[in-house]
Amino acid sequence: MNCTIDRADVVDRLTEWVVAGRTVLLLGPIGIGKTTILRELARVLSKTERPVGVCHHTGSVGEVTAALARVYPEIGTRQRKQRTLRGALRLAIDRRPGALLLDHLVCAGTILKGFLRSLQGTGLSVVIAADIEHKGDHARVRALRVAFEEMAVPRLPPRHIREILLDQSRRLKWPSPLHQEDEESIVETAAGRPGWVVMMAERLCESRYWTDARVRTELLRADVNIAVGARYFRFMEPSTK
Predict the structure, then answer these.
(1) Strand partners of residue 126
(2) Topology of 5-154 in CATH?
(3) Per-residue pLDDT tens for 76-87?
(4) From CA 106, how far away is CA 104, in angstroms rounded?
């Protein structure tokens, strides 16, 4: 799934902030497209000389330092303790400032918070994509006290969600063509979140979601809600490491 035209201004603004050395919170519910935006941002930044570290799951300081170590290989990581590694990374970043893209962060442990704060002033730009499903999530992420800017990912209009669903219907083999009423129900359930419509489309390959050429939309909706909930609770647990 590509970053749509409607999200181009989001990527442009993030690129401006990264080049300016800012730290940014990229906020939105699961499935809104934060990962796709980070992927597009990494692609844009790869055309510059700026080192770009990407952490696909941000749950511990070890995952963050590993992402940075991949783009600062000169520091070496063999037999280094985490504290020594973090110090070496700060020095490397001071010499050659880069960008750090952190995906799937809802909250973090004490050591990770401290490390992120210690990177302020090194010239490193940080974009933190946080899954915000409830009001408390926003406060929890803000408690990191590492962000200068915030950006909420906008929901896509129904016509774009319908285009994604149509694209999925061409790519996937469903037991039956999609009835118009079922299409409307799926678009409504997605509520502007492209990830949701993709999850629902992939499940439609299974015959258990169909009865007499119609989609069992209540079952489909329930299963996707369960999958999203499981993902949310998996990512929201902080690590103390």
Answers:
(1) 23, 100
(2) Rossmann fold (3.40.50)
(3) 877 678 888 999
(4) 7
